[in-house]
Amino acid sequence: MARQFAVFDIDGTIVRTSLMQLLVKELVNRGQLDGPKAGDIERILHDGRQRIDDSVFGSYMKQAFDLMIQTAGSGLSLSDYTEAITAVANSLNSTSYVYSRQLIDTLKKNNFFLIAISGGEQRAVQAIASTLGFDACAAGVYYLDDGKILTGEVQKFEAKKDAVLQAIISKYDLNTNGSMAIGDTGNDTVMFNLVSQPIAFNPNQALFKIAREKNWMIVIERKDVVYGMQMENGQYVLKSVNV
Fold it and tell me: How confident is the prediction along the chain (243 residues), in pLDDT tens digits per residue?
């Protein structure tokens, strides 16, 4: 029998910030990035997250990566980068959302096929997916290396999230009935259109507007409180969230 699936975004959906921000902090802790320069990188990423137009965030990510490579001096070694990614993946209990972790655990117990689709870097996305026990994952970019150091070049994967998800569904013969998608920005709506149960998690303005128009479930996590918002009689009302 074909398995049901759930597809998750990562930045802002599983992890509270972005993989890039977590990586920068880890490199600072390891003495491989200068603190003030790391602050500049975080400001670039923060500015990108504040834009209403989700399509521009990729350019901010590229700016942040370029500055990270420049700040690393002679170059960030592939081994240092890999070790930092592993540390980020191992810190998920303190850097990820409670709701997302609990939902992942529940879905695994119910034999859902778990998929992560992110605009983040491939090695980082794979590390997160592996740590969480996902069955498949796809990333947005890949940092090129010469076998020893990151060269500063970025290979971008052009396929949109819906095309990637459709390919995974076909490859693993997955069941779309009862399937779920969880994301936090307008870029995730293309995945939502392919599933039975879309969940807009801590949505930005663009996604909130679309979710309201389509009557999608909204889940908000703030500090130690998680609550759902579901459309009834033309307005959202608070609902308890079961995971």
Answer: 789 999 999 999 999 988 888 988 888 888 877 777 777 877 777 666 655 555 555 566 677 777 777 766 557 889 999 999 999 999 999 999 999 999 999 999 999 999 999 988 999 999 999 999 999 999 998 999 999 988 888 888 888 999 999 999 999 999 999 999 999 999 899 999 999 999 999 999 889 999 999 999 999 998 878 988 877 777 777 766 767
Domain 4-239 CATH class label: alpha beta
Residues in Cβ contact with 20 at an 8 Å cutoff, skipping those fewer than 6 apart: 11, 41, 45, 61, 64, 65, 68, 120, 121
Rounded Cα gap, residues 143 and 123, in angstroms: 8
Nearest to 75 by CA among 21, 151, 142: 151
Dist. CA 4–CA 37, nearest whole Å: 44
HEC states along 156-190?
Answer: ECCCCHHHHHHHHHHHHCCEEEEEEEEECCHHHHH
Query: What pTM was estimated for this model as a whole?
Result: 0.89
Q: What's the chain's Rg over C-alpha atoms?
A: 18
Segments making up each domain of the chain, as ranges = 4-239
Planar angle of CA 14, 16, 21, nearest 5 degrees: 110
